[in-house]
Design goal:
GO molecular function: oxidoreductase activity
Shape: extended
CATH superfamily: NADH Oxidase
Order of helices and strands: EHHHEHEH
Radius of gyration: 19 Å
Protein name: Nitroreductase / dihydropteridine reductase
CATH topology: NADH Oxidase
Largest sheet: 3 strands, antiparallel
Oligomer: single chain
InterPro entries: Nitroreductase, Nitroreductase-like
Number of strands: 3
Strand order of the largest sheet: 1-3-2
Distance between the termini: 39 Å
Helix content: 40-55%
Number of domains: 1
CATH class: Alpha Beta
Pfam family, one: Nitroreductase
Length: 122
């Protein structure tokens, strides 16, 4: 699965912002778009990352293993997918883990720091 973001800001606004309730449009105009094109595009990418969390949760609820991958060759994916209006951000593999794989947690348990070493109560 490849997750992509719309590259063209006017197209994004036409397809997404224009259909929102007035309060949400005001939020976009004053809290997002007011900070400029670069900030708006960064916000748009972050919205795609939010969908990743839902996707991974959905896979887990169906008993599927999923691994998100950044660092993909975005240009190669863009050419392969032939979606000129979108820019690929990341990919996710989905399937079933091989329990005999040497990297499977049942074969080689994950090492983790103690909770007190990484979480501080304030």
């Amino acid at each position: 699965m490849v997750f992509s973001v719309i590259e063209d800001l006017p197209l994004f606004e036409k397809r997404n912002i224009s259909i929102l309730p007035p309060g949400w449009i005001a939020f976009y105009e004053h809290q997002v778009k007011a900070h400029g094109i670069a900030a708006t595009k960064s916000w748009m990418e972050n919205q795609v990352y939010l969908s990743l969390g839902y996707f991974l949760s959905a896979c887990a609820s169906m008993g599927l293993d999923a691994t998100p991958m950044e660092g993909i060759n975005r240009n190669a994916y863009k050419q392969l997918l032939s979606q000129s209006e979108y820019a690929p951000l990341f990919a996710v593999t989905v399937g079933y883990a091989d329990a005999s794989d040497l990297n499977h947690p049942t074969v080689l348990p994950k090492s983790r720091f103690d909770l007190d070493d990484v979480v501080q109560s304030i």
